[in-house]
């Protein structure tokens, strides 16, 4: 029954005049939306994605800020302190980039430039994801280095980095290429 409803919805949407457009050739794929509707939809989707990333980076950054106040921080080697400082700086920049779209939207709200705001917010989010990736890898490196002092830590962190790259970038890029090329 559900499949039949979907088929009926498809055939109704494909009829001339139903969407306000006459189809002379093949049926258009995609949405029938104005530029403003597209910007609204893309903004909503972007904000949902940002919420997930912001939560993760804020928890990680908050944890990193507390480490310096622990008694064992004084026992860190110079290398580990430098890794810690780099990790905190990366966490701060990732937080800034992932919160940036919210500030950007608030400042330009009502100026009728939502399509441009979506583009800039998307760029900030992508930058934030790259910085979050660097923060997570750096934090993992620091924690495993302090916890184990073993020489396998860089290899383990390299494996985790490869996994992140596959999940966050390679798989989506592969799917984008595979499913958006011409049939």
Automatic annotation (TrEMBL):
This is DUF6328 family protein. Residues 1-38 are annotated as: Disordered. Keywords: Membrane, Transmembrane, Transmembrane helix. It comes from Streptomyces pyxinae. Pfam families: DUF6328 (PF19853). InterPro entries: DUF6328 (IPR046291). The keyword Transferase does not apply. The keyword Cell membrane does not apply. The chain crosses the membrane at residues 52-71, 83-104, 124-146, 152-171. The lineage of its organism: Bacteria, Bacillati, Actinomycetota, Actinomycetes, Kitasatosporales.
């Amino acid at each position: 029954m559900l499949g039949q409803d979907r088929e009926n919805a498809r055939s109704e949407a494909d009829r001339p005049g139903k969407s306000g457009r006459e189809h002379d050739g093949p049926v258009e794929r995609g949405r029938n939306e104005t530029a403003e509707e597209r910007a609204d939809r893309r903004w909503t989707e972007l904000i949902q994605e940002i919420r997930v990333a912001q939560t993760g980076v804020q928890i990680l950054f908050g944890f990193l800020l507390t480490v310096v106040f622990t008694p064992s921080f004084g026992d860190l080697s110079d290398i580990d302190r430098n890794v810690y400082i780099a990790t905190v700086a990366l966490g701060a920049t990732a937080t800034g980039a992932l919160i940036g779209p919210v500030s950007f939207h608030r400042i330009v709200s009502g100026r009728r430039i939502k399509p441009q705001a979506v583009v800039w917010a998307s760029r900030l989010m992508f930058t934030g994801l790259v910085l979050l990736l660097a923060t997570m890898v750096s934090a993992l490196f620091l924690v495993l280095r302090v916890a184990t002092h073993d020489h396998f830590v860089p290899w383990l962190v390299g494996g985790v980095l490869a996994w992140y790259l596959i999940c966050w970038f390679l798989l989506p890029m592969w799917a984008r290429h595979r499913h958006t090329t011409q049939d």
